[in-house]
Amino acid sequence: MNAAFREAANQARQKPVKLTHNQEVARLYRKALKTLSSWTIDRDIFLEEATNLRGRFDAERGCSNAKATRLLREAKAELFESTHPDPYCVPYMPGGSLFMRNPPPPLSICFPDGDIPEDAPKYTRNPDMSICTPETGKSAVGSVLVDFGKKNME
């Protein structure tokens, strides 16, 4: 990548949100389940492995802060090592077959005279068709960087 592209990507990239320890563990658990679903095809095997994974998380619940930090670091490294080369992605997310297939037209196009009805939706949508809210950390207001290599939206 050249410097100009990196600079443009940095301007489009949204600032990361500072997470609590519980939020980090919950996101790590969710990513681990998604990685597990990429590796297992049979639903029964997935459920058994998901139960084992939940047991591993529950076994370390309530440990000291130093041990929790070490476990979090080790779990992230383990998750990185077991990442699937072609992960499953939901069809309407970046990289999916339905991604931005039928994006809603802007209201200014639908109602060029400016007479927008009261029952018209008053929200904007992200490229993954979810509603833009500041709480989710994803807001398509302005520019959004869609990374098709990682199959995510930054």
Short description:
The protein is mainly alpha-helical and 154 residues long. 44% of the residues lie in helices and 3% in strands.
Question: Any overview of this molecule?
Answer:
The chain has 5 helices and 2 strands; from the N terminus they run αααααββ. β1 and β2 form a beta hairpin. It has helices at residues 3-12, 21-39, 43-59, 65-81, 107-110; strands spanning 146-147, 152-153. The protein is mainly alpha-helical. The protein has a two-stranded antiparallel ribbon with strand order 1-2.
Overview features:
154 residues; 2 strands; 44% helix
Oligomer designation: single chain
Q: Distance between termini? A: 17 Å
Which word captures the global form? elongated
Number of strand elements: 2
String of helices and strands: HHHHHEE
Helix content: 40-55%
Describe the main β-sheet briefly: 2 strands, antiparallel
| Radius of gyration, CA atoms, in whole angstroms | 20 Å
Strand order of the largest sheet: 1-2
Percent in strands: under 5%
